[in-house]
């Protein structure tokens, strides 16, 4: 049996005195999807940044793709794709220039960027500075950026934000269930999260309020997290 | 997937920084304008038509230092504000590549600044003709710029993550840059005197040693500065 893709035990993170995440424990198998739900300030984005190795845990244990964090973070970097609230792209550069830059950081051929730009129908606008593009178009380029290095684990924070239905369909094969990758999705849409996840984690004020297989839950129960 | 080569990463980071600077014109034009304005103010403030010797060297280096602080403050801003730091930290690239690329970018900014500032200084303030001093002056400028680039990279990376970066940048960089200004001004003094003196090797050596020490400190600390 293969190692879990994510293994958390009593994971804790503080910002100063404030507990942002407390005692989070879970296991996610490779290829599975974890949906993370909860009201604003529940610690969802903090959890994503911890898994991405951008934050250090202040307590507990975290193993991602078989490596302990933060000690072996170097072994995980380059195997994770993060699509967060910020596109992590430079506004003055075009989509092609941004992706060529990220390709160099990951040691990936630039041809991969062209392939992804075509997949999200951005190849014709690829030479325009990002500051001239709509938020939805920038989000499509950000999807390309997150997938450029063919990551095993995708960390997605409301990945369809700013996308119209047509653009949502374009990115679906890349970041949806069919992508075959292990995924952690932060969402505010209980019904959507249930439909595309195997495991659901509900956070309230940094603590685990719910952890159950998606098949055992219904959207109404998830709505309770926001009350 | 193997980690990308450091040289390729440095080249990509430099290319990105230079492209952004060429499109924004946020750093170098501000640095050049500041230095020329300062020379004009010195011209009137000192009520002297020409300067030479230690006064000329001091005015030149203090002006370059303050102009450099403008560049240092902006060195990492695009990365901090547009997620470039996070993107870099998510990649398997060698952390030292970022330090090297930023130091090279700042060195480039300083050299371009001096292409404007030194002729302006010679025109507005300098008494002795600059021609004979130029080869020696270029050597001192490069050594001084290396110190500014290394210290500026270290301080810029530290300050940019703070909310008070505009205060923290000068507050940290100016004390660390005092030995650079001191060594560079003392090495420049004989070059701007009449008659033109030789290069003071002692001060050049001091400047080079200071650059080397800070390059080693930057190499040792930079990883730590990038971490959470």
Task: Furnish the topology, listing elements before pairings.
The complex is a heterodimer of chains A (227) and B (228).
Chain A: E1 6-15, E2 18-28, E3 33-37, H1 44-51, E4 59-64, E5 67-69, H2 73-76, E6 80-83, H3 95-106, H4 111-119, H5 135-147, E7 153-157, H6 165-175, E8 182-186, H7 190-195, E9 199-204, E10 207-213, H8 219-223
Parallel strand pairs in A: 3-8, 3-9, 6-7, 7-8
Antiparallel strand pairs in A: 1-2, 1-4, 4-5, 9-10
Helix pairs in contact in A: 3-4, 3-5, 5-6
Chain B: H1 6-24, H2 28-45, H3 53-74, H4 77-81, H5 84-90, H6 95-124, H7 134-159, H8 165-188, H9 201-226
Provide a quick synopsis of the model:
Chain A has 227 residues and is α/β, with parallel strands linked by helices.
Provide structural commentary.
The complex is a heterodimer of chains A (227) and B (228). Helix content of chain A is 30%, strand content 27%. Chain A has 227 residues and is α/β, with parallel strands linked by helices. Chain A has a domain at 1-79 and 153-165 and 186-227: 3-Layer(aba) Sandwich (Rossmann fold). The model of chain A has no long low-confidence stretch (mean pLDDT 93). Chain B has 228 residues and is mainly α. Chain B has one domain. Chain B contains nine helices and no strands. Chain B starts with 5 loop residues before the first helix and ends with a helix. The mean pLDDT of chain B is 91. The chains are: A alpha/beta (227), B mainly alpha (228). At the A-B interface, helix 3 of A face helix 1 and helix 5 of B.
